[in-house]
């Protein structure tokens, strides 16, 4: 049985999700919270397997709350549940550790698909969000939220995302390994990313792969 926690400041959303999920055989809602403060109180008593988390709460930033919850309770898988379909929010939540991203207009089948996928250690993106990312990739559009990289950093980010090693990047761009490492560290610092997986996701959202 998958234990679910729900955080949303709208009673209609909370009650609707509770009824929907408790009708399923594979999961059970163990608590609901209408604010970040109530969430922390609930977590002192019981820890869910999956947390459905609204991005906008009256007393907390959803992206920051996601990071804090995962840092303190590493077993919890977070699925963002929001009205925002902009890739900016997807990027922030995924970088914050969320395992899934759903729009509030989703149906029961899609919600259950997300819960099951995330419970199995997979990531899940709402189909509308995937389309937005694909469109950005096709158009090559650069959004205003993005941190500005130099031309060389953009080249290196694309090569990293396509699984080139530092040595291969150095050879391809006629640079020393030390220079590649310097650029790579600069990219990590600018984007606040700590691993290759994060760089690949960022490259995808930038339309580089």
Instruction: Say how many strands there are.
Output: 8
Q: CATH superfamily of the largest domain, please? A: Response regulator
Helix content: 40-55%
Characterize the biggest β-sheet: 6 strands, parallel
Uncertain segments: none
Strand proportion, as a percent range, falls in 15-25%
Write the CATH architecture name of the largest domain.
Answer: 3-Layer(aba) Sandwich
Given helix and strand content, the structural type is: alpha/beta
Question: How would you characterize the overall build of this protein?
Answer:
The chain is α/β, with parallel strands linked by helices. The protein has two domains: 2-137, 3-Layer(aba) Sandwich (Rossmann fold); 151-205, Arc Repressor Mutant, subunit A, CATH 1.10.10. The chain contains ten helices and eight strands. The protein has helices at residues 11-22, 36-43, 62-72, 87-95, 108-119, 127-139, 151-161, 166-173, 177-191, 196-205; strands at 2-7, 27-33, 50-54, 56-57, 60-61, 77-82, 100-103, 124-125. Strands 2-1-3-6-7-8 form a six-stranded parallel sheet, with helices on both faces. A two-stranded antiparallel sheet has the order 4-5. A hairpin with a 2-residue loop joins strand 4 and strand 5. Helix 7 (151-161) packs across helix 10. The longest helix is centred in the last third of the chain and has 15 residues, at 177-191. The mean pLDDT is 86.
